[in-house]
Amino acid sequence: MNRSTKDLLLTALAPVMWGTTYIVTTEFLPADRPFLTAMLRALPAGLLLILLSRRLPKGAWWWKSAVIGTLNIAAFFALLFIATYRLPGGVAAVAAAVGPLATAGATLLILHQRVRLRTWLLGLAGVGGVALVVLTAEAELDLIGALAGVGGAVSMAVAVVLTKRWGMPEGAGPAALAGWQLTAGGLLLVPLAFATEGAIPALTADNLLGYAYLGLVNTALGYWLWFRGIGRLSVVPLSFLGLLSPLTAATVGWLVLGETFTIWQTAGFAVALAATVTAQLQARPKTPVPPTAGPRPRLARV
User: Fold this and answer.
1) Could you tell me if residue 299 is inside a domain?
2) What is the pLDDT of residues 1-27, one digit of tens each?
3) Distance (Å, rounded) from C-alpha 300 to C-alpha 116?
């Protein structure tokens, strides 16, 4: 296995783990506590990663970590759990599936890189495939929940592109970078959680188990792998890996909750998976060609 394939597979583990968030939230956690859940998911994981990496931000990375932590953690987690609590899992998953399209837009606006038409088409195919997998005739649309789901996808997309633009801080690895952002985002969520939801309720053993899984596996390990991937993979193809999250959620529902898969759901699964794989293949570097005299190169395309 070559290095690029290994990096791709390790990074893909992050959205696969994130795909278990919905079932853990609905089956293990207290109801109607989106900000508390977001805070308990982010802050302990961030502090743990800072402790393990033994690195604190330096110079401009204090404010850069705060900016990305606000977008990627505080805003994304809060909006994610609002969508999760207010929407059926399928509708929430479709809202989140706009991530590749949002990342393509942010790449165009922030990195000033042209985005190929096929990237936009693959993004639309991903949304359509996820919709076929997770939407049912009984799915109800809650406007606030839907806006929260789309807003969370956009917030995370901007954060990923900014992280790619600013690069990896000198002397720090992905664990430190993930820890700074999780801690910054988690601290912002503390006053929001207590102001809107009050004191932490009495937690059952199932609640504690759910929060421990979200913090340690889903978040600490997941975001370490994700930021490792941001430093090694192209940003738009990386965003297509996020489609693995709703596909995992649907698979877990089938395996654990006994949900059924129709022929249309199977077709949608294949379409979304094909869009994800194709996006990775188009990002693979081609064999380099010796430089020759000619016109100046155009802007990079992704």
Assistant:
1) no
2) 687 888 889 999 999 998 888 888 888
3) 10
